[in-house]
């Protein structure tokens, strides 16, 4: 049993003096001025109390508001029931007989643990915490709700009505919709022209005319018979993406209402849960492959006699990523109001909208992991683009060295990798970061984990640099047509598979224990991602050389 959780629940019960809607409402009405200066909210709350205690059979809107509100202390709370969210739709559909009162759904998420710092309060104001949902008259603003319903005042209500559920289209929303419609029209016209040319055995007048063709782009997307020697990378990327999706779905599940929190707590202590905790290694797989491809393709290009144009190298990268990212930011800023609804939607929407309105520029410049305050990013998953792009823009330093002075280039890559590992050890030691971040750990150092480690290029670049070394080794071995002897190959594969399993499952008893052992976490954090990247780089090298066995 998680005693911190039980303590939090008992604190919640003690803090909320009345665990029923009527009690909270009476306390709120007690603060209403007796004579003058009553606000519309005050009058509506008094009418609500009167309707509840003196109901009429043909106008029971007060009882409907009680029914639509959550139970502050739901059944099974000691077993982890944090899923009492009230009834969102029922609340918004409430209208009194005289049309004067309409339902408003107000939700706040609280973390009932004393001594929380500002970062944790911001987190609960986002998507994490124990839900308190009240259905009240629409005359009350969120600020008035905070003032009159003094339930965990450090956290704030977010309110929705049927009227503000889908607000009128703004100029920005209209412009974004028009822009997306233009893109859609270009896709339709380009696809139609592409199909026409194919049916009539004609070549397109210009490749630009089929650039937006859904047909051609779909064929390219699913083509597995290309000329690339590195076809194994497609398979690695596929399985890595599945792993990443699995991990994000689980995190999303943890942020959703559920009634068995303690079952999840117990599950996360098991050895099989390590596979779920290790999903972040799939990100290092992509970083490793990115570094490998940059070096291998560069060396192949130089070897074939092509000149290296650093300006085109940068422009091509920026233009390849930025249009899609920009369109996504436009949707996040201007269209989130109209594409979703629900009890928690307003919380998620506000979080993404505010961050993208404030940090869109740093996202488009791929510097958001360093430029933004408190390591906030416009869209959470785009931190990877910043890290990858920064490393790509720095890569000519070691690319040119590997081309002209291979030993110096290798020395630079090794030194930078060691430097990155040292920086990981330092931040882990200094900020007591957890090696495995999961729902068992208190949220108090989540800001440090993300802001000092997970989103930072200097702490994540070891995977990219190891991939770059792998790309150079692969290029040299291909040029020299080098083959590894069978016995040595068997030993290397055995060692690499042991490394892979060790990265996922090693240290379970120590790292998942209730006691934080600083040096265990430091060692794990320092070596686990570089070790994983060595395994990935080896797998690509072996498969491309035709020595991957059944994996190839």
From TrEMBL:
The record's SMART domains line, in alphabetical order, gives: NRF
User: Which key words are in the record?
Assistant: Membrane, Signal, Transmembrane, Transmembrane helix
Organism placement in taxonomy: Eukaryota, Metazoa, Ecdysozoa, Arthropoda, Hexapoda
Signal peptide stretch: 1-18
Q: What is this protein called?
A: Nose resistant-to-fluoxetine protein N-terminal domain-containing protein
Span-the-membrane segments of this chain are 173-196, 238-258, 278-298, 318-336, 383-403, 410-429, 453-475, 487-507, 527-546
Give the organism, scientific name: Callosobruchus maculatus
Q: Which GO terms describe its molecular function?
A: acyltransferase activity, transferring groups other than amino-acyl groups
User: Could you tell me which residue ranges the Nose resistant-to-fluoxetine protein N-terminal domain spans?
Assistant: 38-166
Query: What Pfam families does the entry give?
Result: Acyl_transf_3, NRF
Domain of life per record = Eukaryota
């Amino acid at each position: 049993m998680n005693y911190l959780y039980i303590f939090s629940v008992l604190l919640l019960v003690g803090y909320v003096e009345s665990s029923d809607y009527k009690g909270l409402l009476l306390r709120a009405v007690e603060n209403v001025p007796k004579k003058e200066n009553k606000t519309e909210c005050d009058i509506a709350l008094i009418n609500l109390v009167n309707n509840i205690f003196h109901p009429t059979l043909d106008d029971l809107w007060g009882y409907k508001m009680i029914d639509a509100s959550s139970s502050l202390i739901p059944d099974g709370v000691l077993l982890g029931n944090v899923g009492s969210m009230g009834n969102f739709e029922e609340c918004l559909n409430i209208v009194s007989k005289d049309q004067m009162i309409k339902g408003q759904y107000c939700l706040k998420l609280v973390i009932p643990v004393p001594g929380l710092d500002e970062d944790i309060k911001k987190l609960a104001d986002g998507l994490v915490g124990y839900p308190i949902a009240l259905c009240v008259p629409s005359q009350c603003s969120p600020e008035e709700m905070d003032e009159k319903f003094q339930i965990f005042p450090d956290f704030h209500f977010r309110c929705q009505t049927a009227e503000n559920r889908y607000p009128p289209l703004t100029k920005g929303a209209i412009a974004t919709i028009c822009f997306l419609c233009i893109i859609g029209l270009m896709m339709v016209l380009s696809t139609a022209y592409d199909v026409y040319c194919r049916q009539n055995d004609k070549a397109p007048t210009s490749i630009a005319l089929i650039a937006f063709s859904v047909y051609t782009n779909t064929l390219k997307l699913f083509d597995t018979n290309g000329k690339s020697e590195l076809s194994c990378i497609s398979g690695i990327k596929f399985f890595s993406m599945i792993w990443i999706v699995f991990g994000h779905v689980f995190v999303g599940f943890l942020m959703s209402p559920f009634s068995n929190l303690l079952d999840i707590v117990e599950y996360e202590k098991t050895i099989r849960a390590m596979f779920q905790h290790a999903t972040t290694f799939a990100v290092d797989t992509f970083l490793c492959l990115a570094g490998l491809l940059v070096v291998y393709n560069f060396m192949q290009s130089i070897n074939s006699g092509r000149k290296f144009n650093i300006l085109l190298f940068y422009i091509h990268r920026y233009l390849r990523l930025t249009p899609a990212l920009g369109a996504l930011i436009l949707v996040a800023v201007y269209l989130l109001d109209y594409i979703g609804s629900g009890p928690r939607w307003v919380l998620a929407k506000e979080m993404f909208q505010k961050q993208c309105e404030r940090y869109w520029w740093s996202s488009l410049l791929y510097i958001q992991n360093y430029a933004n305050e408190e390591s906030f990013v416009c869209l959470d998953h785009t931190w990877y683009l910043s890290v990858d792009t920064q490393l790509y823009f720095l890569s000519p330093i070691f690319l040119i060295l590997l081309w002209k002075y291979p030993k110096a280039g290798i020395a630079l890559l090794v030194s930078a990798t060691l430097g990155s590992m040292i920086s990981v050890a330092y931040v882990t030691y200094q900020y007591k970061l957890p090696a495995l971040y999961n729902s068992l750990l208190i949220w108090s150092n989540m800001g440090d984990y993300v802001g000092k480690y997970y989103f930072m290029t200097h702490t994540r670049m070891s995977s990219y640099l190891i991939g770059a070394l792998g790309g150079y080794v692969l290029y040299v071995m291909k040029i020299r047509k080098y083959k590894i002897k069978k016995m040595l190959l068997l030993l290397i594969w055995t060692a690499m598979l042991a490394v892979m399993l060790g990265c996922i499952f090693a240290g379970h008893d120590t790292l998942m224990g209730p006691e934080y052992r600083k040096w265990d976490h430091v060692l794990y954090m320092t070596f686990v991602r570089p070790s994983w990247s060595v395994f990935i780089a080896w797998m690509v090298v072996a498969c491309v050389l035709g020595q991957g066995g059944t994996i190839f």
